[in-house]
């Protein structure tokens, strides 16, 4: 055996592609965080052995491409109605693990009513909410989470509080509702935050599996194309400007272990 073969044999595999993540080329824009978030979701599907009993309700927007990359059943929902669709699936098939994967324009704008009321009812669902502060698929328009002063195609001089309002902090809103069990906001801009995001995803999945009710994970993400930034600059904005306005952390965990 050659020295190179011997070294290869001694190597231990520490990370591999999740089985629930399809081995296909990615088509997202360079620097887009959707691919990273897909992996985090796929890891938990594998971790809990859910691939054969998992159903996702995808929304309209870049988030809808979930069905191209995850090897699970995915139902495309009308714009803003993913949580209404997910509620129907879960009630009809209560033994399935049901989650939504939604963007800010979908969940926090046209889908605000569905989002708030599904959460307030305490539906036993899991929500992955990708907040990139802009409408990504339709041309970079201002979203409910667009930062103050941020330039978009519909706020060419920057978002102004007067007349346009301020960005909605959805994690904080969800945490105030009696029906929610677990609410967190995470980011995927560096290794430290990735580890925290992975832990939050796991906890959100546990909530549904244990029948503890509605769980919600907001993920701060980049959109270099519509932000008109390089991937590096967009990634830095997530951990800087975005995280400053949308603080990271666990906002609610009804079943958190009690301190000794």
Q: Concise description?
A:
With 260 residues, the protein is α/β, with parallel strands linked by helices.
Question: How are the elements arranged and paired?
Answer:
Elements: H1 3-10, H2 34-47, E1 54-58, H3 66-69, E2 73-76, H4 82-92, E3 97-103, H5 104-110, H6 112-121, E4 126-131, H7 161-164, H8 170-175, E5 180-187, H9 191-209, E6 214-220, H10 224-227, H11 231-245, E7 249-253
Parallel strand pairs: 1-2, 1-3, 3-4, 4-6, 5-6
Antiparallel strand pairs: 5-7
CATH domain topology: Rossmann fold
The best one-word shape is globular
Kindly name the structural category.
Answer: alpha/beta
Strand order of the largest sheet: 2-1-3-4-6-5-7
| Integer tally of domains | 1
Question: What letter string, H or E per element, gives the SSE order?
Answer: HHEHEHEHHEHHEHEHHE
CATH superfamily caption:
Thiamin diphosphate (ThDP)-binding fold, Pyr/PP domains
Largest sheet: 7 strands, mixed
Number of helices: 11
CATH first level: Alpha Beta
Q: What portion of the residues fall into strands of 2 or more residues?
A: 15-25%
CATH architecture: 3-Layer(aba) Sandwich
Radius of gyration: 19 Å
Uncertain ranges: none
Number of strands: 7
User: Percent helix among the residues?
Assistant: 25-40%
The overall pLDDT average reads 94
